[in-house]
């Protein structure tokens, strides 16, 4: 299956004083503001690392849901956070934290399924960074 998705960026001005917008055809991003202040300080708007974190948390959670389904389980909930660490101009680490509630799932099977999701969700495969995982089964 071939799936293509896109988004666009417009930047105006210098790196530090300039500003930009991000737009996606779905409308989720609609001239969404980003700038030096939103990336390196606490300005209002988004930034590439935040968007990567959201994409990774969503991708991991969906991959884990498919893994659970394949093993005969259905998640009551999967709550995942992805912390993206930008250090000296490089994303060095991504820390995934997930909490899962699924009836009948034992710890050994849970660990197998979350580790598979970590290694095999398409967003994980993009990174040349260390990906850590802290997983809790409720």
Question: Could you explain the architecture of this structure?
Answer:
- The strands form two sheets. This protein has a three-stranded antiparallel sheet with strand order 1-2-3. Strands 4-5-6 form a three-stranded mixed sheet, with helices on one face.
- The chain is elongated and about 55 Å long.
- The two termini are 34 Å apart.
- With 138 residues, it is an alpha+beta fold.
- Helix 2 (48-70) crosses helix 3.
- The longest helix is centred in the middle third of the chain and has 23 residues, at 48-70.
- Strand 2 (19-23) and strand 3 (32-35) form a beta hairpin.
- The protein has helices spanning 36-40, 48-70, 107-120; strands at 8-12, 19-23, 32-35, 77-87, 90-101, 130-137.
- 30% of the residues lie in helices and 33% in strands.
